[in-house]
Amino acid sequence: MYIKTLTIQGFKSYRDQTQIEPFSSKHNVVVGRNGSGKSNFFAGKSFKSLQYKRVSLLHEGVSDAATLSAFVEIVFDNSDNRFPTGHDEVVLRRTIGLKKDEYSLDRKSASKADVMNLLESAGFSKSNPYYIVPQGRITALTNAKDHERLALLKEVAGTKVYEQRRTESLRIMADTDSKRTKINELLEYIESRLEELEEEKEELKEFQEKDKERRCLEYALYQRELEDVGEALVEIEEDRKAELHGANIRREKFSEREKEMQDLERDILEAKHAQETLAQTKQDAQAELTDFVRTRTEIECIIEDLKAAGANAGGKRQELEEELEQIQLRIHEKQTALDDIFPEWEDRRSKELAEKRRLDEASLRLAALFAKQGRATKFRSKSERDNFLRHEIDSLNTYKTGQRTALEASRAELESLRRSEREIEEQISGAQEKIEDGRKKVKELGDEVNNLKEQYKDLTEKRKDLWREDTKLDSLVSRASDELRSAERSLAGMMDKDTGQGLRAVDNIAERLKLPGVYGPLYRLFQVSDPKFNTSVELTAGNSLFHVVVDTDETASKVLDIMLKEKTGRVTFMPLNRLKPKNPAMPTGPDAEPLLSKLIYDSKFDKAFSQVFGKTCVCRDLNIAAAYVKSHGINTITLDGDKVDRKGALTGGYHDVRRSRIEGIRNVGTWRDKYESERLKSTDVKRDIGVVEQEITQMNGRIVVLNGQMTQVREARERLMDEGASLVRAREKVRERIGRVEGDVEELEAELTGLEAKLGALSAELKTPLSNGISAEEEQLIVALGKEVDKRKKEVVELSRRKNELEAKKNALEIELKERLVKRQEDIQARLDALGEGEDDASVDDLEARQRELRSLTSSIQSLTKKVQGMDKESENLTSKIQELRSTLEKVQAQQTEDSRSMSKQQKTTERYLAKRQMLSAKKDECNRNIRDLGVLPEEAFEKYVNERVERLMKKLHTTNESLKKFAHVNKKAFEQYTNFTKQRDTLLKRREELDTSAESIEELVQVLDQRKDEAIERTFKQVAKNFEEVFEKLVPAGRGRLIIQRRIDQDEEADEDEETQKSTIDNYTGISIKVSFNSKVDEGLRIQQLSGGQKSLVALATVFAIQKCDPAPFYLFDEIDANLDAQYRTAVASMIQELSSTAQFIVTTFRPEMLVTADKFYGVLFNNQKVSSIRSIKREEAMEFVDQEAQAQ
């Protein structure tokens, strides 16, 4: 095994991480200038080997950054498995911080002890510190004294263990001697004390005889007094029992009257509450009745006003209807007249048109003849005329085509206008039908709204009744809640605070977690069949009344876990699956009944009730109860609550019925039932109120919807009326347009007829030859046509006059109809419609609604009046009842006051009895105490003075006491003290023998340790001396060296022992000296003090090598061991190291060239200006060059 590599960082001058190339397994040399860090590098390896403490090991350079930690890591080659780790390499690392060190072994954290044990197992013994030799160690060994070298030899021999054990043994032996001395002193004292006690024992015997006599006499006197006191107590007890019987009877009556008073007070309180509730209800009803009467008066006035307003509205409607009827008659008359005139006017108009057409034809023919006459002189030739005619014919044809087109367009327009007129007529008819439908719809919606308003009023009245009922129930619920809380507080006052909190927590948890298996406390699960057993049940159950019954222990655990987590009170659970009651057989006599039979409960809770009540019977009195306890081994209780336990305990006394738990439980149950009943009723009423309010809201919403629909229908009808009016106006416009278009058509037709005639004439003329004038026929025709034109003009004028007369009448009738009568009719109809749909309908509806409301109010007033009368009667009955209850209560209270006085007198008598009994009991206790104080009495004390008189006994006692006075100073504990001292003496003697044996064993151990230490020193010295001679001979072949051990027997004066030898009483060695010769093997030699410095160093090195040979290590670290050697000796040391390096690794620092010659590997240490060291592998030549430079510099 050897050091393979070394890594250093932050350690002393090695600030940066420095990893050194693998060391040689033989001889390695490190060189460097003084102060460069060689010794720090050396200390790094030592530091890893745990030879240096963690002091000033961190780097301190000129750098700004402080070094907070350092580490040194060594990798060992473990191919020989010297470290028992099973690996070929072992990595040891020590990290030093500001506050603590850390160690690691093979990259795993390890303790310092683990590292130390590992190193010792590899051969690094703490008793041989010379496998690491730092600077100064050789010099110290050179200057060491003989006794220091002896101490070194002892350390190598391992005698420290022997010396430690010897010191410990001597300390124990000193303690043993001290204890033996104390024991001897105590034994001397005990012996002297035993002699004194022997004398005191005889005097004590005489004293005991006299004292026995005294105690017998005192016992006889105390016994006589005790018998007298017992007889007096028996007599007093009999008197007290007689008085107690009467007191019990009075107390029973007192308790009954107390309960009666409670019942009367409760009845009075309930009657008062009922009276207050009735008064409040009556007050509310009276106020409501007053409001109803006032409202009825107001409604009656409103009805009168509505009737008057309805009468006025009815007169106005009648006037409008009459006017409308007259207007309609006049319209009918005018329409009839117009219908009569219109055919005649049409006939005249058609005649006029026909006559005009004939006039136009005649005029055209006449004009054609005149034109022909004019052309006869105008054209020179026929062709010229024909051209002109053709041109005229073409022009007329073109114009005729245009006019015919216009005629067709006018006819088409006329047809379109007539269709539009028919469509408008249809739209007007549809609008009128819709208007009529809207009127009917408004009427229907109005009727429906009135019906809904009627239902709304009924629902409102129903809601008022429900509100009254809800107010009443709220009052009852509030009172029941207050009484329930009061009863629960009263019941909670009968249990401790934790139990009350626990029961509330159990109820809360069971409700929260929906636990069906939590049945509640026991008191909720039963009822007492007869109230007279209440006291018996309550006192038998005790706190078990508040135990919580559950189905299984699992349920109990769940609830208990939550209670513990929430810290809410404390309760006791009764899991039914765990209860196994074992009840004894009950007696069948008439004077004892099982208490369990007086309870009413569900059979599934039978185990719980059997557990609590199954062992108890109710008896008539205590005597019977005690008899049954003895005969049947059961628990018994009387109706008054006096209990006799089967174990012999008797409990009882006064029980305040006003604080009865059963009564409190009954009150809680009663008020809880009442509260739940009233609350359910109140909930139902509130639900009904909610339902009615929903219906009212729905009804109101329906009314609003219907009113909205009515408004929409009215608005739609108004829009239709406006649309109808606009359609009528459009129809009139269309009719006007039709008249104009018909005139245009007639004119165009007449014009086309004239054009046809003119074209015919021109065509005919075109066929005739050109002449200078017209023919005679044509002239006659002109004359005839002229006459015809004149005649027809006159006819046209006459026909036009007659037509215009009829047209004037027709227009007058139409204007009368359209502008006056029809508009007036529409206006009147609108006003009538407004009256029917608006004010009039509203007035009628309002009047009907008010009348309905009046009828409803009258009915409500009658109903409320009856209720108020009934309430008055009920209030009178309640007042009478309260007076009767108060009278009864006063009588009972007076009787109770009288009984209280009697009980007070009886109590004083009882107190006198008790005081007397207490005095006698105290006297009895004093006699018993005196008898007890006499201690253990002899047998004769119980019979010797039985028949003696008291006076004689007193005289004898006086004589005995006088004779005892002379023994006033006797030691009454002499016997006891003598026995105790004898026991102590025997114990001390035994202990002294044990200590003597222990001292002998320790002396033998010390002798053995001294012998073994001497043997170890002898053995080690011989080996080291032999090794020293061999090493010195190798280093100095011409010389000889010896180690000489110095013994005490060799010294002349034993008194001059030094400090070191005084530690052991039998230390045989005083030191080790050295004698060497450097030039002869036969000379006696010189002592080391006579040698030169170099020779001393060589001798010291030989000593080190000799010690190392005794206990070889796997590697050695030498720091400048050749500094003081001469050249020849340096060569010898280097040769020896080379020889030894075959079996161990050497790492040496040096400034001398001799060490470099035999080394295998070389390393140089460098140091920069920042005080940071570094190390690197170098060649032998570089190392030699460095050493030569250093030697020249020196």
Descriptive keywords:
1194 residues; alpha+beta; 20 helices
The fraction of residues in strands falls at 5-15%
Radius of gyration, taken over Cα atoms and rounded to an integer in Å:
75 Å
Quantity of strands, as a count: 25
Give the termini separation: 38 Å
Query: Which regions have little confidence, pLDDT < 50, spanning 5+ residues?
Result: 47-53, 1052-1066
**Overall outline:** flat
Oligomer: single chain
The major β-sheet equals:
6 strands, antiparallel
Write down the overall mean pLDDT: 78
Count the DSSP helices. Answer: 20
**Which structural category do the helix and sheet elements fall into?**
alpha+beta
Strand order of the largest sheet: 2-1-4-5-6-7
**Helical content class:** 55-70%
What does this structure look like?
Helix content is 68%, strand content 10%. The strands form six sheets. Strands 2-1-4-5-6-7 form a six-stranded antiparallel sheet. A six-stranded mixed sheet has the order 8-22-23-3-24-25. It has 20 helices and 25 strands. The protein is an alpha+beta fold and 1194 residues long.
What is the structure about, briefly put?
With 1194 residues, the chain is an alpha+beta fold. 68% of the residues lie in helices and 10% in strands.
Topology, pairings included?
Layout: E1 2-9, E2 18-20, E3 27-31, H1 38-48, E4 70-77, E5 89-96, E6 101-105, E7 108-110, H2 112-121, E8 132-133, H3 137-142, H4 146-157, H5 160-375, H6 382-492, H7 497-513, E9 518-521, E10 526-528, H8 534-541, E11 548-550, H9 553-566, E12 573-575, E13 592-594, E14 599-601, H10 606-613, E15 616-619, H11 622-632, E16 635-638, E17 643-644, E18 650-651, H12 661-767, H13 776-837, H14 839-933, H15 950-964, H16 974-1035, E19 1040-1047, E20 1069-1077, E21 1086-1087, H17 1093-1110, E22 1115-1119, H18 1127-1140, E23 1145-1149, H19 1154-1158, E24 1161-1167, E25 1173-1178, H20 1180-1193
Helix pairs in contact: 4-16, 5-6, 5-12, 5-13, 5-14, 5-15, 5-16, 6-12, 6-14, 13-14, 16-17
